[in-house]
Amino acid sequence: MSAAVDTLRLTAEDALGLVERREVSPAELHGAYLEAIGERDGELHCYLRTVAEAEGTSIPIALKDVISTRGVETTAGSRILSGYVPVFDSTVAARCKAAGLTLLGKTNTDEFAMGSSTENSAFGPSRNPWDPSRVPGGSGGGTAAAVSAGLAPWGLGSDTGGSIKQPSALCGNVGLRPTYGTVSRYGIVAFASSLDQVGPVAKTVRDVALLYRIIAGRDAADSTTVELPSAVELPSAERLEGLRVGVPRQAMALEAIEPGVRAAFEAALELVEELGAEVGECDLPLSFDYGLPCYYLIAPAEASSNLARYDGVRYGRRSEGESYREMVEGSRDEGFGDEPKRRIMLGTYALSAGYYDAYYGQAQKVRTLIVREHASAFEKFDVLATPTSPTVAFPLGDRTADPLAMYACDLLTIPSCVAGLPGLNVPCGFSEGLPVGLQLIGPQFGENALFRAGHALERALGLDLVPARLRA
Q1: Which of 43, 57, 297, 326 is deepest in the core (most CB within 10 A)?
Q2: 64 an active-site residue?
């Protein structure tokens, strides 16, 4: 039975239909994806580990390896957590189980979700299914590459400054970073607590909406969560009359946007207008002038605090040393890679005596201004639109020696993340034979508007998003 399942093209919604109609069992579907993983993941390295048994009544799911899973190793892509097997499920994993989903495995990630290419994983990089010599994006490149290559019908990632949206753009998937607080962070290995958010990655907008339904909502174990003000809607409309779309002129003025990315985005905007939407310019000067430096003060500062627990005593692998200090130093030196060390040092400096107000405190004030600036834009527009990534997938190793160039990958995704707003990547075309993503940003709790706009655009474009090199 599993041989008849075309995992490359199967959407999660279609997979659910197969199971509900009993055309395939959950175990057979799980087996079909494991077969596909066995055939293709040796080249792509999407998974850090797989789960052989299908313990559920529905379809499979892949989880980024920052999501705690009871009885299944969870490393956050770091040596310091090697061998850590949680004795509990994160809330999102528990909700997936309650919905009958079966765990396919844990996907590769930049260490502690710190990166834009998945090259910072302590266990080696993942590769882009469209061209294995290129990155799949990050930090959630493993999940994005797995969905793109037909190695999972859908998956969960985490997004701090673009780690769902950017890899979804580079791999040709739909990816949602939800409104901050709508999805529980309980059981998620923390990076930056005021920014981290879990969200779905899938082949279609409807798949993303279906998975968001499963994971969203208040959780007593996470005091930052809230109930959704309205039910999650499955989009069906194919026209966009009445929708007002704002395009930040400061975003489109960025020289970092490649010509091919710009052309695909502008062509998609023309199509949005043909579907009945009104498209106009808006201004977000603070967001695009200061969003990146604001983020790279707040996120490392919170990372410095969160990662202080990994000392070889309370948490993390332990190295030998003649004194307590030597043991802690050795544990951290051997356990953390270069990028976590870099961000810990940045964050510790920003929080240190005499510098807190000048750096972290000032960044939080700028954050408030960015929130207000977005709120002002939403007085005139229902959604905002930009390219998701300024470039298509770049070659492995191209930016590893230049951290600032790597950080610039998230120029377009960071401002709305700092503001705590929902963002949806929708594939909108190709450049150099590689996918280009369009980012739709909504106001707080504006996911349904994003789903409506994204679904209509997706249907009108009708792109074939199976990587060309994998098509039969």
Answers
A1: 297
A2: yes
